[in-house]
Write a structure and sequence with these properties.
By secondary structure, the protein is an alpha+beta fold. 49% of the residues lie in helices and 20% in strands. It holds the Pfam family Pterin_4a.
Length: 102
Amino acid sequence: MRVLFNSRAKHDYLADALTLLSGWTREGEQIRRTLVIDDTQHAALTERVKVVADALHLRPEISRRSDSTQIRVGHGNGEPLTEGEVLLAARIEDAYRAVTES
């Protein structure tokens, strides 16, 4: 049996998934997260995110500002947020927990 997803159901699914990602905020067609971590944790997080992002063929924006790391996921050019981008955000949360717990 085949299930067809219309764009409304897909949007609702993504919106529901985003509510499970605490700390992420939506800005149009991008999602953003600011993490307060030190330089060593930033380097470890960036390496882990790069591996996952490469596997998903995505390019998040990761920048360092004094004592925090800012991450943006999404195109921001009018393209809708995809399942892969929400998945990447979830994997970034996993990586964040891993680098801050060790």
